[in-house]
Specification:
158 residues, alpha+beta, Actin, Chain A, domain 4, two-stranded antiparallel ribbon, 5 helices, 23% strand
Amino acid sequence: MATQSERELEEKLIEQLIQLGYKSVDINDENQLINNLKTQLEKLNKIEPFSDKEFDQVLNRLRKGTIYDKAKLLRDSKIDYTKDDNTIGYISLLNTIDWCENIYQVTNQVTMNGKYQNRYDVTILINGLPLVQIELKRRGLELKEAFEQTNRYERHSY
């Protein structure tokens, strides 16, 4: 049996996800990831575009806390932010009732800069949130290598 390169594995996985209804998006770095998140949350919540000040509040809520706190935030039905007119706005991060109304996207080779530069093989985004990162290894390599690389990325990127 011929072995596939990691690039071929990525392409096949992305192709399968597209067939399942995911939209392929070109996201190369953190700035593009954040811009996509903003756009997808606006679409999901059917709201006017966030101002920079409003979206900074949303980002701050997403960045704060432990992994447990962030998971709880995802499950909460709404999160609030103060609009520019000083009224309170509410947005959902995930539609847990009508899950098919969420926006499913896939991208690959996103580069993140932390302590070191890391590039993720395949990233699945739901409503712009990068919720699943997949590290692919070609046949013949130890599965342990993918786990070690993922753990290294966690230490270096977050």
